[in-house]
Amino acid sequence: MSGTSLDGFDIALLEQSDHCRLVANHYLPMPDDLRQELLALCSSGPDELARAAMAEQRWVQLAAQGIQTLLSEQKLSASAIRAIGSHGQTIRHEPARGFSIQIGNPALLAELTGICVVSDFRRRDLAAGGQGAPLVPAFHQALFACDKRCAVLNIGGFSNLSLLEPSQEVHGFDCGPGNVLMDAWIDQQQGERFDRDGAWAASGQVQPQLLQALLGDAFFQTQGPKSTGRELFNLGWLERHLARLPSYGAADVQATLLELTAQSIISALTAAQQQTEILLVCGGGAHNGALMRRLQALLPATQVSSTDSHGVPADWVEAMAFAWLAHCCLEGIPANRPSVTGARGLRMLGAIYPA
């Protein structure tokens, strides 16, 4: 998995029988020049088809390198692995226009690793009228469903919720920005890739006028199924709001962006599922102490914790999900959820590229 934060490759090794078990993992940082090119490809530019093809080749080469390192560390051969589930790297996501683009050349990945690759998970759901995302709620249900009213919150570049109620089908949707705006703002202002533990945000003051302007975006007023991406929430979106308002200190803007993430998540959760008893958080946002404390303050009657508390490391849930989706594809198990994406029905997700 290489998510919208573009920080690196999360590679998870799963053993799948009656239950899935995380055997090992490996993290490979994203080189800064490739990260900048992938960010640039999220909007139109000169010679973008050739640039995307070249970036895709390098992305695959790095993914293959990370996979081979993990297998070497575990003393496993390629023949011990049934398949690689590769999400690819999202560079455009516009379900309203019927498409979502992930680069990741699965044929090349199969060639470089000698392992069967399952990829292209979103397109069949989109073809069936769905959003193509989020796709992880079915996995969250398989992993975390219990006899309590639970929700699983992934905070990567964007945030998404899976709502797990006993004896009910899973529901889920994107809430809005997770780390994407906070990361972009601290990168512009301080040259840092992310706000470690939310310390910079905690040093500022939330600005109510700015917060209400940001929360006024139409996306926050809509109910699921819905998904979003950098096409909507990006640095330009923030700067357009800032240009119409009084000048704010940089730390105050960061504090307000953290509050935007927290409030948009909790507002979406309380509107869709009342009296949530447990909120399990995964993704990079689970390490943002200031954000986690704010989520708990906004949900005082709910137990808020990372998925680590349930035995699944928060950093690896998303990568595990795409390994599990590959398993579903190979076994002929439909893995989308119409209640989440809005598709016309259950569909098998993924295309298979044999070794």
Overview features:
355 residues; 12 strands; globular
What does this molecule look like?
There is one protein chain. With 355 residues, the chain is an alpha/beta fold. It is built from 13 helices and twelve strands.
Could you give a short description of this structure?
The chain is an alpha/beta fold and 355 residues long. Helices cover 39% and strands 19% of the residues. Strand 8 (158-164) and strand 9 (171-177) form a beta hairpin.
Topology of this structure?
Layout: E1 8-16, E2 20-29, H1 32-40, H2 48-73, E3 84-85, E4 89-94, E5 99-103, H3 106-113, E6 117-119, H4 123-127, H5 137-144, E7 150-155, E8 158-164, E9 171-177, H6 180-190, H7 199-202, H8 208-215, H9 235-243, H10 250-272, E10 278-282, H11 289-298, E11 303-306, H12 317-331, H13 338-341, E12 351-353
Parallel strand pairs: 3-6, 7-10, 10-11
Antiparallel strand pairs: 1-2, 4-5, 6-12, 7-8, 8-9
Helix pairs in contact: 2-3, 6-10, 8-10, 10-11
Tally of DSSP helical segments = 13
Shape descriptor? globular
Instruction: State the total count of DSSP E strands.
Output: 12
Q: What is the chain-wise order of helices and strands? A: EEHHEEEHEHHEEEHHHHHEHEHHE
Radius of gyration: 20 Å
Please state roughly what percent of the residues sit in beta strands, choosing from under 5%, 5-15%, 15-25%, 25-35%, 35-45% or over 45%.
Answer: 15-25%
CA(first)-CA(last) distance = 20 Å
Provide the residue-averaged pLDDT. 96
Poorly predicted parts = none
